[in-house]
Structures are given as C-alpha cells and as structure tokens.
C-alpha cells in the first residue's frame, strides 16, 4: 500500500462512501461537488492505493439469531511462536470470530466473538478455542449492550 496524500475533497469522498458504500458515481459527484469523471478518478485512486480496502454489507447479528457478543482474551503458552501460524489460520476460518487483535500486556490476543446464546459461547470456548494448539487460557467478557459499533474512520485532517 502506497502512502497516498489526501486532500479535503478525498476526505469528503471517503466520508460519503463510509455513510453509503452503495452510492453511485453520480451521487458521489454531487455530494462532493466534482464532475463524475473527476470523482471516478479519485475513487479509483483511493481503491488502488488500498485506502479503500473493500465494500461490505453490515449485518445485524441479533436479527440473524446471534444474541451474544463476547470479547475473549486469549493467552498463549510461552514459546508459542511455533503455533502462531496455526492459531492465525484457525482464527481466520472460524466464522464466530468477528475480529482478532494481537495486543500488548498480560494477554496475547483479543477476539470479538458472536454466538447464538451463552451455551453456544461456552461450547465454542471449551470445544474449539481452548483446543487450539498453543492456547493456554481464555477469559471472556459478555457484552451487555452495544453502545457504538462502526467501522467508520475519523477523516478530519
């Protein structure tokens, strides 16, 4: 990914796209006060530079029957370097895991996980996550209420 210089118009374009990723080029052009051709060039440059990674639909987990969201702190065994690629590969394959971050401190990873209910979460932790080679411990925090959930980036200069 190259380091792309963003001007005010690029930031406005990105802001509109964050609000509505399905906006047509004409809608984008009107929103940022540029011609459709100039807007399309900027849009493509932002995609090609990697600033725009992908487009996706954000689904409502509760509407799909996932009533539990949990944050899982994973601790790996000392010297777990040999198991890292296997751990990362399995995490990437497990659909329940929405996000995974390698972090500093007393734990090694933080996972955001969705489950149908608490029993499903427990089964996932005991039967799947704890059985991954190198995992020595997990601690979970169940989300009581979602206050803010966004993937929108702050765009002020």
TrEMBL record:
Family annotation (InterPro entries): ArsR-like_HTH, AsnC-type_HTH_dom, Dimeric_a/b-barrel, Tscrpt_reg_AsnC-like, Tscrpt_reg_AsnC/Lrp_C, WH-like_DNA-bd_sf, WH_DNA-bd_sf
Gene Ontology terms: cellular component: cytosol
Domain HTH asnC-type: 6-67
Keyword terms of this UniProt record: DNA-binding, Transcription, Transcription regulation
Domain of life: Bacteria
SUPFAM superfamilies: Dimeric alpha+beta barrel, Winged helix' DNA-binding domain
GO molecular function: sequence-specific DNA binding
Gene Ontology terms describing biological process: regulation of DNA-templated transcription; response to amino acid
Gene3D superfamilies noted in UniProt: 3.30.70.920, Winged helix-like DNA-binding domain superfamily/Winged helix DNA-binding domain
Coiled-coil blocks: none
Keyword Membrane attributed: no
Protein name: Lrp/AsnC family transcriptional regulator
Record organism: Cupriavidus campinensis
Lineage per the UniProt record: Bacteria, Pseudomonadati, Pseudomonadota, Betaproteobacteria, Burkholderiales
